[in-house]
Amino acid sequence: MLATTQTAHRRRTMLRHKGCTFITYLHPIMNKQSDHIVRDQRQIINHLTLLINEKALINLNIGNNESFITTLIAIDTDTHSLLFDLSPKEYQNRQLPGTSNAVFRTVLSGIKIKFEGKDIAKTNYQGDAVFAMPIPESMLWLQRRQFYRIKSPLSKTSHLKLSVADKVIPLRLYDISIPGFSLLNDSEPLNRILSPGQIFKDCRLALDGLGEDAIEFIVLYRIPLNPNKPDKTMKIGCRLTSISPAFESCIQRYMQQIERELKQKT
């Protein structure tokens, strides 16, 4: 089925195949910081859950050149609140609830993360005093390509299961990160489908030895793997737009597994 809508700024075409949906945006993909601002609440919760699971150390700036290191503890879905640790300094714990410009910053696997807090108040969680605040409306999730990508070895059978026209087509995983991945493709008809701007839904990513899960992603770029052979294998760069917290942690473990294997060889 093909449905087309038009706005003053852009035109998009949505195509649905069995098991896979993709949307084509007929404008260039721009690589700017605003592209890395996450506003989807489901994705924000996924990212926060990853920070909780990884026990990430977060620098919390509370204004007036005051900051301390905290960790996220839990997400309370009943109150739509984010819980995090107190400061070891009591005067900062008194100061934080009154601040209007609390800023959380951290780096995880080369990903720069930043979000703001408001309406912060003390509460209790499992018998301990903690801070609570509304889940942020947006967050910066900025990946530096040279830091976060890791190449998937040829010995791994990791691949994407792409469903098109009643067929499931496996595409080999070339490299991967928490927020994205790239694929290798030799098929010219598939290259026309896997073009920049297309959003795919209801596809599955399989990681060798760690399982698979449903994902959604947008194609960011398509370039020849070998510039001297532009008509051969293409590298398809993708950014994840929807992924479960459990599978996000699975990607983290997969990257760490590859890093350990590489270190053992050196």
TrEMBL record:
Keyword Lipid biosynthesis annotated: no
Gene Ontology terms for molecular function: cyclic-di-GMP binding
Transmembrane segments: none
Pfam families: PilZN (PF07317)
UniProt-annotated location(s): Bacterial flagellum basal body
Entry's family note: Belongs to the YcgR family.
The protein's name: Flagellar brake protein YcgR
